[in-house]
Amino acid sequence: MFLDHLERYASSLGPAQQLQPKVAAALAAIETDFPTRDRYLQFARDADEASVHTRA
User: Do residues 27 and 18 make contact, with C-beta atoms less than 8 angstroms apart?
Assistant: First the structure.
């Protein structure tokens, strides 16, 4: 899973970067991607590793 990488990248974006139109649009698309969110949560609930469970 790439969650660590994605979390590090997202946290590295400063406020000025987040307000750039392309970045803001990409973040908004991620924020409203409910089908992907639901698939991830289902995966996390079924995962055997505790580290995956704690992210859900």
Answer: yes
